[in-house]
Amino acid sequence: MKSYTLTDILESNWLFRRNFCNSFPGFKSLNLIGTRDERGRENLAIFNSVVHIGATPPYMGFILRPLTVPRVTYHNILGTRHFTINHVSTGIIREAHQTSANYTTRISEFAETGLEPHYEGEFPAPYVAESRIRIGLKYEEEHAIKANGTILVIGAVQEIHLDETLVGKDGFIDLVKADTAGGSGLDGYYRGVRLARYDYARPGKELAELD
Question: Which pLDDT value is given to residue 173?
Answer without folding.
Answer: 96
